[in-house]
Structure formats: C-alpha cells, structure tokens
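Input (structure):
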C-alpha cells in the first residue's frame, strides 16, 4: 500500500447501533468481546448462525453512545434484518448510515504519522472522525469512517491521492483476507473455516454469543479440517463449487469465484501441500500463501 494513496472502499457500508442497551445487545450476539472496544480501540467480529456458520462480518468502532459496524455493503439489508430479529425488547436503535459515511483505507505509515502505537485495532480521531488500524492484519493499514465531502478535504490536507480500489483488494487477497465478496460463505461454511481465529474475529474467553457452543467445541476438539485460502489461476477458468483435486484426490472446492478467488481446502489431508499445483475441471490453480501461514 502506497503511503501517498487513499482508497475509497465504495463497497463498504455503515450500520449504527445506538441506545441504552447497545453494549449488552451486541455483546450477547457477536463473536468477539465488545469490552475490547473503546474510543481508543476497535475490533473485528462475526455474527454467526446458532450452528457456528459464517453469516456476517464487520469492524466494530465506538462512536458517541453507540457503535459503528463497518461491513460489506451488499450485506446491509440482510444484516439489518438479522440484527432486528435479535433486538427483542432491547432499547437500541439500528440505523443504516451508508448514505452519510464512507470508509476509506490508508497506509500504516500514514497512521503512524499521528499515532506511534501500532497495536491491531488502535483507534484515533482525525478531525473528529475515527481512524482504525485494521484489527485483522497490520499490513492492511488503517481505515477512516468519514463523510464523503470531508474525505476529499482531509485527503487534500494530508497530501493523499485517491487511488484505484483494486490495488487495495489485490493486497487484501495476497494476504489471504477476503474482501467484500463473501456471499458464498454465508450459512455454508463454519466461521472457523474462514480463518476467523487468525483474523482476530473470535474471543474464546468471552461468554455466550450466537454460535458460541459449537464454535468452542470445534476449537477444543480440533474438528476443523477445512479452511479457505486465496488462489491464483495459472491457466484456464474456474467456477463456484468446482472440485479441486491433487493426485486424483478431491482436496477441496472453489468457494468464491471472483477477481480475487478463494478455495476451501482439506488442509489436514496428507495430499495437501500448499506449494503444489492443484487442478479443477478446467483450470490449474495455486494457493497464495496467507500472512498467517
């Protein structure tokens, strides 16, 4: 990520959770510990199914008396419905603020010009707007939640050039971090299979939350035998659900066929070797080694 660049993440949206019960409400449903979140620290979290399968992901940022959820924009409508379902009698307001705020990414070096503490999730304010060092991986830099007009003014003030979003998501993919295109994960694979632990989305020490029982059991008994990895096409074409093979043995499938694709691999299979060339029906692919591997 270039120090002089800033990337407007147009495919991200903002949901605002506010109200007297906002802390307890979120703490009871999300996979991370909301006690970590303050004016000075943010976290990455999931909302899982009761069985522990992936549903939604977001970065949780403290904002005034409530919390911003920085999430993929395509998830907003279904996330809003799910949050409303869990609301019951809780005194909270759930608001889609995606038309008022944008999310933009900038380099770690830009962040450290203002704050020397580079712990994941460190949060500062720039002209009253939160700037968060990405809680998943420091190499993804920082992100700011800001009004679009203010973003242009702030970019000019910081001598930053608005750059193409593809550069940012190319970096994210190379690190093994899915971007906003995670629709094919929803309710199909377990949260732990999406590397939620490696991306700091789960706190195994917190109390109950939706999907906690099965997630904790799978972690304790080491039942996870599949996980997603970023893939690079060497030749040919791939489609969702294409079977991945090596040595004529099925080793996984394509779980996300996009510009930045991912495969779901049986990583405990004795045939699995990260550096190998894998085959689908119409392609040869290779795993891009993720940052946590």
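Output (sequence):
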């Amino acid at each position: 990520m270039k120090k002089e660049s800033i990337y407007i993440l147009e495919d991200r949206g903002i949901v605002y959770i506010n109200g007297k019960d906002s802390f307890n409400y979120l703490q009871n449903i999300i996979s991370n510990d909301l006690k970590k979140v303050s004016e000075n620290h943010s976290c990455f979290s999931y909302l899982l199914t009761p069985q522990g399968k992936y549903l939604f992901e977001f970065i949780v940022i403290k904002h005034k008396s409530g919390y911003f959820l920085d999430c993929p924009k395509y998830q907003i409508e279904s996330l809003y419905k799910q949050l409303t379902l869990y609301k019951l009698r809780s005194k909270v307001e759930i608001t889609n603020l995606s038309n008022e705020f944008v999310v933009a990414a900038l380099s770690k070096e830009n962040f450290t010009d203002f704050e020397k503490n580079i712990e994941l999730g460190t949060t500062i304010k720039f002209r009253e707007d939160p700037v968060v060092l990405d809680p998943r991986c420091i190499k993804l830099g920082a992100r700011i939640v800001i009004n679009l007009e203010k973003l242009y003014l702030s970019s000019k003030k910081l001598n930053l050039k608005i750059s193409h979003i593809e550069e940012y998501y190319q970096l994210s993919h190379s690190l093994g971090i899915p971007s906003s295109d995670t629709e094919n994960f929803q309710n199909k694979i377990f949260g732990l299979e999406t590397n939620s632990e490696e991306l700091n989305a789960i706190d195994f020490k917190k109390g109950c939350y939706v999907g906690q029982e099965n997630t904790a059991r799978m972690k304790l008994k080491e039942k996870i035998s599949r996980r997603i990895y970023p893939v690079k096409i060497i030749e040919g074409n791939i489609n969702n659900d294409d079977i991945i093979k090596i040595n004529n043995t099925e080793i996984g499938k394509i779980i996300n066929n996009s510009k930045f694709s991912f495969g779901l691999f049986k990583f405990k299979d004795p045939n699995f070797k990260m550096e190998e060339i894998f085959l689908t029906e119409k392609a040869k692919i290779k795993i891009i080694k993720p940052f946590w591997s």
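Notes: The first strand starts at residue 5 and ends at 8. The radius of gyration is 19 Å.
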